Please model this.
Amino acid sequence: MYKKDFPFFKNSSVVYLDNAATTQKPKEVVDKVVDYYTNFCSNTHRSNHGGANKATKEFEATRDTLKDFINAPQSKQIIFTKGVTESLNMIASTFAKEFKTIIISSLEHHSNITPWHMQGRTLHKGLEVVNAKDNLEFDFEHFEELLKNNPNSFVSITHVSNAFGVIHDIKKIAQLTHKYNSYLLVDAAQSLAHFEVDVQDLDVDFYAMSSHKTFGPTGVGALYIKENLLEKLPVYQTGGATINDVSFERSIMLDAPYKYEAGTQNIAGVIGFKKALDYLNKITLKEVYKLEHELCTYLYTQLKKVENIILYNDTKNSTGSRSFNIKNLNSEDIGILLDKMHIAVRAGHHCAQPIMKKLNIDGTIRVSIAFYNTKEDIDIFIKGLKKAILMLKD
Ligand SMILES: Cc1ncc(COP(=O)(O)O)c(C=O)c1O
Model:
């Protein structure tokens, strides 16, 4: 029903089930990017002519829309970045750098692991990892034990696992984090597109979002910062557009959010992102969640019927992605055969090698859905999967 809103599906017959890697873009997003480059391509927050004022106005409108989208108190608490990866690196190399201990979960994407390694932290030497239970759920007992032993820490946890779709109970994680006088950053790469988020209710300190995972352009992300931290967060990069006054003796920075946005931004991407949020607001995230939940449940039931399947978690507390293996077959081989049948999934480690190592596997086949997918997509995929299994067995 919704595919008609996405130009990709008009031009391609691919059954697209790789939405955790990136999502397709509604026509409004593509049109807005073209509109910017065609009709008012100008820099923001600098010149004072018609095109520049329009670009600045639309750029700031995205900030306002995103503020409402996640129920942040003020627009200045949203800063634009290149994506979740840049937001995580920014916080790791500024605010979180001085903390003795960083606590992450077992299900983190490499983007929330390597920035900590780059600081010389390794397991039990400045970096602690919360266990995942056998069904991959977050082990709260272990988390509290880590916090008890390491109060005043920095906790950095994904909202939803990109590899398995497991949803972490961020509200409960935030309560425990703050009980032990620690701070919480949440990686929202896989949550923003799937269900309603209220950063005040969750009580997170930082919330790192990605436009391209949320039906917007690539190369754009946003970071929500709790108000009391705006003054405490050091600037990451400086330069054009971040300063109030500069002499050869000193630089006086602008206030947030501008002091955190150095250099010319991805203007087309940011203003395109607003159109993706507007589109989602029109459908409503309640509807998105409902549609995806039905699809995920259907997918799970169909997968369970496949011979020799290995599933790692059930549909409870999960969304978006579903990972599996077929006994004695290589996930990448299955991925290649599915591609030949025009079915796009991801096979491999999904930038989450540590959890793959814990599970003693090289990777999985990941089917990741969005609300525009249909039961028919899943039926085609299941048929293709069975065919690939037969071909590889021969
Ligand atoms: C859980 C998670 N974190 C971080 C990232 C990186 O996000 P971005 O592409 O916005 O840098 C991804 C992308 O796959 C992800 O799935």
